[in-house]
Design a protein that fits this description.
alpha+beta; single chain; 4-stranded antiparallel beta sheet; 22 strands; 26 helices; 5-stranded antiparallel beta sheet
Length: 712
């Protein structure tokens, strides 16, 4: 039973679930989900005010939430709900029917006096309504429900199953991320009586496992954070703890740079409750190993923070974040230095062993690595990528020998011990080993660059060979996986085809490569001997898929700080351009054209012409005959278009899109006069078809840069 009265008052609410060590990689997400889940439940029950603030907490051994200005009883509220038509609600004797009683029971009003139900409407439209003032939610049962629901909905990848002995000796089967030992539920300084996961709530939690062991009494909700920090040696706020760690690392780094990726910072924050930063060292002899290997070893296996100088060269000192603060950290430092040494020794051993074989000597071994059961092995794939790379190099007039060699050896580092231990180093180690094998610098660079861009916003290859190989590798993946029927559906994209398509777009666009996208897809398609792939990998479908990713990319771009609009993007892409390297130039020209006073008039006219041509069912002649022109307005339009054609064609050939669009202004008046004076769909089929041919040619010239009708 609740220990406070039902008069509506407000106070702060604290809920804490104290557990054994939670999964560190999930802790931040678990803390956010718990606090948001509880707050949303209370808000839905009208127990929060507009001034209520929600603060979530997450440490290795607890999830908690503190919410200010929580009502102990929500206000009563009116409920008016249609129940049933009167003809169904009552029988011929005027007695309530079973459907009515069932409906009332489902709404929680089984005992309501039927005389209090409202009738509304007349005749057959008369219906019965529930019209009452409902009691607002009470805090304690709502909190009970909120905690249960929030815990059940936490994004836990794998549950633990265990048993809990309750106070009465009863054994309860429980499942949760980790065993729960205590639950704190305080409203102001008053305990709430709730239970979850077999544990009854109270006012006690526990402090730091080593610095403040034992039970810690929480006297009030508002004292929770300060009590944990001052008495429990716990920094309960994940965000605050992370900020402390980041600031401590920067201070300890001194003049060096500290490598602290967000994922590592989050994970380390989830491993400590009272962070302390210490400096450690390793033997300088290990610096002969590629620094990416050493950095990844320290970050992945030991959760250490590597340091580099201002030029990015790795130092033989590193920082650790300990859960124990002490004035005599020698044992902690020496212990971590002792632990990291064998890890670095392993990295050096892998590096030395890998150098005993050249990359080119490993090429045939790729046949032992399965790529896809329907697409063959990695050697088959490398040969396809090699053929595509050669084709692209020929189209661009770039070095074919480099492209062929890079494609031949680019995947061989997958067979090395170093990449076997650290898959994240694929490509990076390829570049190192290719350099040691005395391969051409551009070929060595391409071994790493062909994975670029790896993610949205990633850098692009610096070399021509790396650019060719990056396009070829992504095309092969996209066409091959599409060809075996594994095109992305919904949110599922296990082979990252969307990312590959976006990478192709960025490479063609940002590198300004005048390559036909359908031709590239066909080039890749021809490299697959499998009949199924040939049938399913339709050029048109894959081309549209890539253009769709281009749409998404363009929506994130801007010109002079103003993002491109959907009509602007569609005006360009609806033309299904084969080459996409000039898309930004077209959009820029379209933006400038749109500022002209005649722009809207020309766009509307273009849309009108499009509609006329779409509705035409007969074949339109390829060219307009000057001999069939009769009305002065159509003659004037024809002459204006003929006079303008050389200017338009010359501007288009020179990519002078702004000048081309501005030149269209000369057609504004002739077009308006044409539609005012000329009947396009003349009864005479010869006149009609000739006028349609004129409009068709006009439409084509107006839309060289973009479909202007999309702007109307």
């Amino acid at each position: 039973m609740s220990t406070f009265n039902t008069d509506s008052t407000s106070a702060s609410l604290l809920l804490e679930v104290f557990t054994e060590e939670l999964p560190p990689k999930s802790l931040r997400r678990l803390g956010e989900a718990f606090s948001e889940g509880v707050a949303n439940s209370l808000k839905a029950a009208n127990l929060l005010s507009e001034q209520s603030t929600v603060t979530g907490f997450a440490t290795p051994r607890r999830l908690a939430v503190h919410i200010t200005e929580v009502l102990n009883h929500a206000p009563d509220y009116p409920v008016r709900e249609k129940l049933l038509p009167s003809s169904i609600a009552f029988d011929t004797q005027g007695q309530a029917t079973a459907p009515l009683l069932k409906k009332l029971a489902s709404l929680g009003y089984a005992d309501i006096d039927l005389a209090n139900l409202e009738k509304s409407g007349e005749g057959k439209n008369e219906a019965l309504y529930l019209n009452v003032v409902a009691k607002g939610a009470a805090l304690e049962p709502t909190v009970q429900q909120a905690v249960e629901q929030s815990l059940n909905k936490l994004p836990v990848a794998k549950m633990m199953h265990y048993q809990v002995t309750r106070a009465n000796g009863e054994l309860v089967d429980v499942q949760f991320a980790r065993p729960v030992h205590r639950i704190v539920a305080l409203y102001g300084n008053t305990p709430l009586h709730i239970s979850a996961l077999g544990i009854d709530s109270g006012k006690q939690t526990e402090g730091h496992r080593f610095l403040a062991p034992g039970v810690l009494q929480i006297e009030s909700a508002d004292q929770y954070e300060s009590a944990l920090e001052s008495k429990g040696k716990i920094v309960p706020s994940f965000t605050k703890r992370r900020q402390q760690i980041e600031a401590g690392l920067l201070k300890a780094a001194g003049n060096d740079l500290v490598l602290m990726p967000d994922s590592l910072l989050d994970e380390v924050t989830a491993l400590v409750e009272w962070p302390a930063i210490y400096e450690c060292h390793f033997d300088a002899e290990f610096l002969e190993v590629p620094q990416e290997c050493l950095i990844l070893t320290m970050q992945t296996n030991q959760k250490y923070f590597a340091l580099t100088d201002k030029q990015g060269k790795l130092r033989n000192r590193f920082l650790i974040v300990s859960n124990i603060q002490t004035d005599q950290p020698a044992a902690i430092i020496s212990g971590n230095e002792r632990v990291v040494r064998p890890r670095l020794s392993d990295a050096r051993f892998f590096f030395q062993q890998d150098q005993k074989r050249s990359l080119v000597s490993r090429v045939n071994d790729l046949a032992r690595v399965v790529y896809h059961n329907q697409l063959g092995n990695q050697l088959d794939r490398s040969k396809r990528v090699q053929a595509i790379s050669l084709g692209i190099a020929k189209l661009l007039g770039w070095n074919e020998i480099f492209a062929s060699r890079a494609a031949e050896i680019a995947k061989t580092d997958l067979l090395t011990d170093m990449v076997g231990e650290f898959p994240e180093l694929q490509g990076i180690m390829g570049r190192y080993y290719a350099t040691l094998d005395k391969e051409n610098d551009e070929v060595a660079a391409a071994c790493s660059e062909h994975y670029m861009p790896r993610f949205a916003g990633d850098t692009l290859p610096n070399t021509q060979t790396g650019t060719i190989l990056a396009i070829a590798d992504k095309l092969e993946t996209l066409v091959g996986i599409w060809g075996v029927g594994l095109a992305p559906t919904g949110d599922k994209d296990p082979y990252a085809l969307r990312r590959n398509a976006l990478g192709i777009c960025r490479l063609l666009l940002e590198k300004n490569l005048p390559l036909s996208l359908p031709a590239l897809i066909e080039l890749a398609r021809r490299q697959f001997p499998q009949k199924e792939v040939q049938e399913k990998a339709q050029v048109a479908a894959i081309n549209e898929f890539i253009l769709d990713r281009l749409r998404a990319y363009l929506r994130d771009q801007a010109l002079s700080g103003k993002p491109f609009t959907s009509p602007e993007i569609e005006a360009v892409l609806s033309q299904a351009p084969e080459q996409i390297n000039d898309i930004i130039a077209r959009l820029s020209a379209l933006r400038e054209f749109n500022e002209l006073s005649q722009a809207s008039q020309l766009a509307a006219a273009n849309k009108r012409i499009s509609n006329i041509l779409k509705k035409t069912t007969t074949a339109i002649p390829k060219a307009c005959s000057v001999n069939l022109l009769q009305v002065p307005a159509e003659i004037a339009l024809y002459q204006a278009l003929e006079m303008l054609k050389p200017t338009l064609d010359s501007a288009y050939a020179k990519y002078e899109f702004v000048g081309l669009l501005k030149a269209l202004v000369a057609l504004s008046e002739p077009i308006d006069q044409f539609f005012a004076d000329v009947m396009v769909m003349d009864p005479d089929p010869k006149l009609r078809d000739n006028r349609l041919a004129l409009l068709q040619e006009l439409h084509q010239k107006m839309n060289l840069v973009a479909d202007l009708g999309k702007l109307a």
